[in-house]
Amino acid sequence: MTDAALDRRAIAEIAEDYGLGKLAAVAPAPPAWCRQPRSTRHILLEAGRGKSILRFDGGRGEIELKREVDLLLFLRKHDFPCPQPIADRKSRLYRDYAGQSLIAFKHIDGRQVDAVRLTNTQIEDIGRVLGELHVIGKGYKKGVDNRFGFESIAATWSEARHGLPSYFKKIVRTLDEEIEYLGNYLETKLPRGVIHGELNAGSLLLKGDKVVGILDFEMGFRGRFIFDVATAVNAFCFVDGKYELKRFEALIAGYESTRTLSLAEWDAFPNELRFSALRLTVARLAQVMAMPGAQRGLAAITEGRVEEAPVLDGPDSEEQRAAVRGFKDHLDRLCVLRRERDGGMEPMLLAMATGYDYRRYQKVKQVEKRPAK
């Protein structure tokens, strides 16, 4: 789709078609909305009925779009703070526009905060909202494929490792060992439901201390709740190369104000942290290898030159640098979780070992079993 297809007149017609009122202003969407691949484009428009986001998606099929919209509508029905799709005058929640799929969302008035700048109060609210998602998600019965199962990650790693240069020998050994370990010890029979799958600071919109929006549900699926919690811990509690216990305690306090973790989930927590770190390490590595100039990207990983412009250049440079940074960041977490280097794991493990409150869990179970009046 060319820019000519999205001139002001065309956007005004779209605003009219969605009943948004007279167009007042058009601007690029805030960065939080623009984390999808470059085949997806977002526009912020302001009209008579307020602000909206237009998303033009050229990379996904109708089944995927319908799945995302259905999930968002379900969550919004339960007042969860996620994007709200808007129907056009023909009641369509997604439609074709100039060869792409168009979805309109109500704008969410919030701001992104870098993970390192989050306060413990904000992290506690993130935990609370994640718990809400899991409680609400229990009631969503439609099938959502798990894209991030162990078998899928193992297959991605098997394919990627054959193209790695010889100087990746140590990293290959680490990831081989982790695949073998988790294949034997990863627990799969744990509480499940709809999860976000990759909650991080880029997916959040905050206003003050409160989460007002969680984005990026196009990758949501049915999975283990503790995997989602572990992913959040890896995203929000790892700062300057180590895990921060106070952040972990805040996140879990917020989460358990909504949903109590079971004893089995506490037992599985350390391995779920490792699996979450492994999944994102392998995913970012595969992303680097799929881009032009992959060998330079891989060299940057081992040589510590990720931020140097000459290392990665061309139209994909920033996207590749982001993938390289992501690979290194998640590999760093994995090395700490494997106890290959110090990084605050001892206090975290102690907190996990003593975090289960049997009396509180029994109280929750009694409430759940209480017959309706």
Short description, anyone?
The protein has 373 residues and is an alpha+beta fold.
Task: Please give a handful of descriptors for the protein shown.
alpha+beta, Aminoglycoside 3'-phosphotransferase, Chain: A, domain 2, 2 domains, 6-stranded antiparallel beta sheet, two-stranded antiparallel ribbon
Describe the secondary structure blueprint for this structure.
Elements: H1 8-17, E1 23-28, E2 40-47, E3 50-57, H2 62-77, E4 85-86, E5 95-97, E6 100-106, H3 120-137, H4 150-161, H5 169-185, E7 192-195, E8 204-207, E9 210-214, E10 221-224, H6 225-236, E11 238-239, E12 242-243, H7 245-256, H8 263-289, H9 294-303, H10 317-337, H11 345-353, H12 358-369
Antiparallel strand pairs: 1-2, 2-3, 3-6, 4-6, 5-6, 7-10, 8-9, 11-12
Describe this entry's structure for a reader.
The chain is α+β, with helices and mostly antiparallel strands and 373 residues long. It has 2 domains: 104 residues, Phosphorylase Kinase, domain 1, CATH 3.30.200; 254 residues, Aminoglycoside 3'-phosphotransferase, Chain: A, domain 2 (Alpha-Beta Complex). The chain is built from 12 helices and 12 strands. The strands form 4 sheets. Strands 1, 2, 3, 4, 5 and 6 form a 6-stranded antiparallel sheet that branches. Strand 11 and strand 12 form a beta hairpin. Helix 4 runs parallel beside helix 8 and helix 8 packs antiparallel against helix 10. The longest helix is centred in the last third of the chain and has 27 residues. The chain is globular. The model has no long low-confidence stretch (mean pLDDT 88).
